[in-house]
Design brief:
Rossmann fold, 5-stranded parallel sheet, Helicase, Ruva Protein, domain 3, 3 domains, 20 helices, alpha/beta
């Protein structure tokens, strides 16, 4: 398994990276930075001590749209760790219709296998391309049974003669290789062998059977071996088909599965959103399968248990769990006491101020203003925002959040989309023009909507 995170990455550096995408929420950033750093520290310890150190799971408390999910997603990207975001409301107590909580770990393992597989494919890419090139040359250069020479199938228009001085197969092959590298043969047709699965679709899609930890596709591959079929395709299509065939031969799926499980167990991150929706007010734990039952099922996974997946058993003891919720009608203390104990770090994220919204428009690496400039730039339209216009957009967004449901930074999306609706619509015929968004333009475009309270509730 490749090193997931540089050991030199300090908590300060982690926060600096998060600052590129998330405005404010310094306390929450500090908590996740410490949690990540503790993982690095744990890997440096002797195995007997490391086994005893469990991750300090976090509960983030705060309204929607203030950066909870984004923070969890960014730390996963930063560490190249398997990351899964789930909604707590999608799960039900075992025995009822709905997803069981163990599927969280199975999905996380599936994700880790894909990550590990993609990395192995990337490492073998050059070797696979060389093999594919040779195979394509084999298909292009077929032996001519009526002559002593090899026939270049790429030269379909060349005249045939009865008596020909035999050409060296190697010289013809090198000539073809040169053409292939220059891209001159991409539209030529070759006949290649492809494998087609003969496993009945119903067996692969057997509902709920994956929970038994059995890979039915692998199980029946011996009973229903793949069938080979010849297809006539263009060289550019053949290259992709053959590449996929070759990389599968070069990578060891058993090794990938083993490394993926290690990756999940050591560095996996699960973000459980809407955790407050499975909390009953005043700590009531009745037979409601979507509340107390889900908490009881979550408990063993967060505490540390073994979940059977089709790639093998996965221990959850050292997976980092980050839970988040608004807790507007409930509070964290309404959670099951045992579950509360497994989330020792609690951090409250503050609602976004008008100044925060202004900084969100301009500071993050993926800010909305940069996104719209890039989108309209594809049509040849240059768009420029005056500072006063950005201040006004932030003010309007903040005011709407106060008057209606507070949806945080997501309000900026609705306001910006409404503001730039006409420009986006007419962009193809505005090609080559520069559009300046001023404060007056913002007020003019949004005036009608803001004045009508009922319309505002529907549109913004």
């Amino acid at each position: 398994m490749s090193l997931i995170m540089e050991d030199s990455l300090t908590p300060e550096e982690i926060v600096e990276e998060l600052n590129k995408y998330i405005v404010g929420q310094n306390e929450a950033k500090k908590c996740v930075a410490i949690a990540l750093r503790n993982r690095i520290r744990r890997r440096m310890l002797p195995p007997d001590i490391a086994e005893e150190i469990t991750p300090k799971n976090i509960i983030m408390i705060g309204p929607t749209g203030i950066g909870k999910t984004e923070m969890a997603r960014r730390i996963a990207k930063l560490t190249n760790a398997p990351f899964l975001k789930v909604e707590a409301t999608k799960f039900t107590e075992v025995g009822y219709v709905g997803r069981d909580v163990e599927s969280i770990i199975r999905d996380l393992t599936e994700l880790a296998v894909r990550m590990e597989k993609n990395e192995r494919i990337k490492n073998q890419e050059e070797r696979a391309k060389e093999i594919v090139e040779e195979r394509i040359l084999d298909y292009l250069l077929v032996p001519n049974p009526y002559s002593l020479e090899y026939e270049d199938t790429a030269e379909q228009d060349s005249l045939r003669v009865d008596v020909v001085w035999p050409k060296s197969p190697s010289s013809t092959r090198e000539k073809l290789r040169e053409k292939l590298k220059k891209g001159e043969l991409e539209e030529r047709f070759v006949e290649i062998e492809v494998e087609e699965s003969t496993i009945p679709l119903g067996i692969i899609a057997g509902g709920g059977m994956e929970s038994l930890g059995i890979d039915f596709q692998d199980l029946f591959s011996g009973v229903f071996p793949p069938r080979k079929k010849r297809r006539k395709v263009k060289v550019k299509e053949a290259r992709e088909i053959l590449f996929n065939q070759e990389v599968q031969k070069l990578i060891d799926m058993e090794e990938i599965s083993g490394e993926a499980i290690k990756r999940v167990e050591e560095t996996g991150i699960v973000f459980i959103d809407e955790i407050d929706k499975v909390v009953s007010p005043e700590g009531g734990y009745g037979p409601d399968v979507s509340r107390g039952g889900v908490q009881r099922d979550l408990l063993p996974i967060v505490e540390g248990s073994t979940v059977l997946t089709k790639y093998g058993p996965v221990k959850t003891n050292h997976i980092l769990f980050i839970a988040a919720g608004a807790f507007s009608h409930t509070k964290p203390s309404d959670l099951l006491p045992e579950l509360q104990g497994r989330f020792p770090i609690r951090v409250e994220l503050s609602p976004l101020s008008e100044e925060d919204l202004y900084h969100i428009l301009i500071e993050p690496f993926n800010s909305l203003t940069k996104q719209y400039k890039a989108l309209l730039g594809t049509e040849g339209v240059t768009i420029e925002f005056e500072d006063s216009a950005l201040r006004e957009i932030a003010r309007i967004s903040y005011e709407l959040n106060q008057r209606m449901e507070n949806i945080g930074a997501r309000r900026l999306h609705t306001v910006m989309e409404r503001l730039l609706q006409d420009i986006s619509f007419h962009a193809p015929r505005l090609s080559g023009e520069k559009v300046v968004i001023s404060r007056d333009y913002v007020l003019r475009e949004l005036a009608d909507v803001l004045e009508d309270e009922d319309v505002t509730r529907y549109i913004l």
